[in-house]
Every structure is written in C-alpha cells, then in structure tokens.
Amino acid sequence: MSSQPTPQIILSHFNWSLARLKEAIENESTEYYRGTALHRFSLTYDVALETIRAFAKEQGQVCSTEEDCFQWVKEKQWLEKKVDCNFIKADYQRIQKRPKAKEAEKIYGELQTYYMLLNHLNECMKLA
C-alpha cells in the first residue's frame, strides 16, 4: 500500500508547473505557443487543485468540488475573498472542450492574470 504524497511534495510540482506556465506565457504569440500556454495553464490548474486538496485533507477538510477548493483557500486567506474564481474555472473548462480560435485567443489573453492568481496562491501555501 503506497502512502499519499504530502502537501509539500505536491506543492513542489505546483511550483514547477507555474514556472513552466510563466515560460509558456512569455513566448512569442504564435498559434503554436498560444496552444502550448493554454495546455500548460490546464495542467497547472489541475495541480493547483490537487495541492489545495492535499492541504485541506491534512487539516481534516474535504474539497470535493472546485468551488469547495476555492472557498477553502479564501477561508485560509490564501486568496482574497473578493477574488472571483468563476472566471478561471470557466476558462479551464472551456479549454477542456477545445475552444475555437477566437475563444482560445480570449482565454490566452487572461493567462497572465491567472498566472498571477495561481502564483499568489502558491506563495501563500509555501508559507503555510
């Protein structure tokens, strides 16, 4: 029986994924690099949720939905209560459905904002 990874181990993966997301965003804006950045955002979002769930579980909490996860980090004050996470969640879900070029371009335009939000979350988790 294997043990579950600790939040710190998952956090290191989150940190790595954020660094790769930043690199992807900083590339030139070609169709290829936009696609790469969107894919990297999707992976980073998944790791962020996995990290949140690991920290919550360690503290006896269960985050069964994305909404639960974001509400929990707001309660921990790792994100400001006024931050609307519905946009990041909705864009993540759009990426999963392979959006058309115009919609993908719109999401791509938001990636820097999403990076900053996820990076802030990461920095707060490192201090926990």
- Class by SSE composition: mainly alpha
CATH architectural designation? Up-down Bundle
Give the mean pLDDT.
Answer: 94
In the CATH hierarchy, the third-tier topology is known as Four Helix Bundle (Hemerythrin (Met), subunit A)
* Shape, per Cα inertia axes: globular
- How many separate domains make up the residues? 1
Please work out how many helical segments DSSP would assign: 5
Helix amount: over 70%
Could you spell the SSE succession in H and E letters? HHHHH
Which regions contain 5 or more consecutive residues with pLDDT less than 50?
A: none
CATH superfamily: Nucleotidyltransferases  domain 2
Strand content: under 5%
Distance between the termini: 28 Å
Biggest sheet, in brief?
none
Number of strands: 0
The first-level CATH class name: Mainly Alpha
Question: What value does the Rg take, in angstroms?
Answer: 15 Å
